[in-house]
Amino acid sequence: MANSAELTVDGKSFSFPTLEGSEHEKAFDISSLRDQTGYVTLDRGYKNTGATQSGITFLDGEEGILRYRGYSIEDLASKATFLEVSYLLIYGELPTAEQYETFVNSIRRHTLVNEDMRKIFDGFPVNAHPMCVLASLVSAMSAFYPDSHEGNGNTDQHIIRLLAKLPTIATWSYKRSLGHPTNYPKNNLDYIPNFLNMMFALPVEEYKVDPVVAEALNVLLILHADHEQNCSTSTVRLVGSSQANIYSSISAGIQALWGPLHGGANQEVIEMLEDIKADGGDVGKYIDMAKNAKTTGFRLFGFGHRVYKNFDPRAKIIKKAADDVLNKLGVNDPVLEIAKGLEEAALNDPYFVQRKLYPNVDFYSGIIYRALGIPTNMFTVMFAIGRLPGWIAQWKEMREQKEPIGRPRQIYTGATLREFVPLENR
Ligand code: SDX
Known about the structure:
Elements: E1 4-9, E2 12-20, E3 26-28, H1 33-37, E4 57-60, E5 65-68, E6 71-72, H2 73-79, H3 82-91, H4 97-108, H5 117-121, H6 130-144, H7 155-178, H8 191-200, H9 211-223, H10 231-240, H11 246-258, H12 265-278, H13 283-291, H14 293-296, H15 313-329, H16 334-347, H17 350-354, H18 361-371, H19 379-400
Antiparallel strand pairs: 1-2, 2-3, 4-5, 5-6
The structure holds s-citryldethia Coenzyme A.
């Protein structure tokens, strides 16, 4: 017998169908709630509200499970390349050798950005935050590829352009902020070495990609690739549900990711750890400040999560990678020890344990990015490069599922009807 949920309101009973996903997540289908009862639901921050049915990413916040299209994040991070994972997320299956070669070569041949985009780029102040530049230039791509919003575009072509050009655009900001010449992509380099070369090569000397750095970045980008209906992904889906083009939708996602409570946390974490170091490394003081957040206004960035209430499986992998990468690179970063001390102190403090506040994906990632030579204000850009295939996959699924335009309701709490008072009488 199909399950249903019974609701009694104002003395009347109503029945709503329930549904269960492939991993046994359960939901009430309340599509007819307002028509039947005149009521809407209220769920600030959507903690209890499913916006869609999706076959892309499964996560279990209690068990610390994360899978892309059924493959565990642990398997993918240790055995796959970032472009293999990108193909998997977007097209639903791991690519065959032939599909992979076509995909990689298509991306390779679209890494150049239209030179006219430089004029937009050059209009920014040199110290513009790279996330602002990235979101603006990705949005501008819809002007350079107008078929993206004229309905007759080839979505796969736009997907290739986004994956291919984001690293190029991202490195422009960094090089310009240093007053260095920007680098062009090289077709003889793979995806991540190409990004590193554009980031760090200088015309005055040969740049050699360190395989340790390239491998660490491959893991980090895979770990960031998708995370079901998080804030920025929900933004991409909502914007795309109005039939806005893919570039505008992804640009909106970049803007949402920038927020310090979301992807912007990785930059905040390093700045917080540096503050603790400058303040003598007294982690207890900052734990106390976080516990009195209501008076201090201080949050322990990199801790807590909307969904993970046990541990963030990505944080576990990144923490181990941080040790490995710093040892291989011979980097001794005192901030790593402070981070471990902070984690240790927090995980033994009732305030954090009761609120299930554990390190999230952003807590250790910045330490690795810094060891790889990536500047702090580029950390969230790295998150965006990693999350791009997830945003694309979710946008594509939303369109293929023909999702209706997203339009939540509200409970109005403002003034009730009142007469207009002419200016001379006010
Ligand atoms: C990402 O959704 C995703 O999947 C996101 C992401 C992805 O891959 O897309 O995983 C990436 O965004 C990771 C999160 C990065 N953000 C941070 O590290 C910022 C610091 N963390 C918090 O601001 C907070 O934990 C959130 C926003 C991440 C989660 O907020 P919740 O679950 O809504 O928790 P809350 O704000 O309701 O807080 C619950 C309690 C509160 O205390 P009480 O009111 O119960 O007394 O926990 C406290 C909060 O004050 N709290 C913290 C805290 N986070 C929550 N106290 C100190 N430090 C913190 N970091």
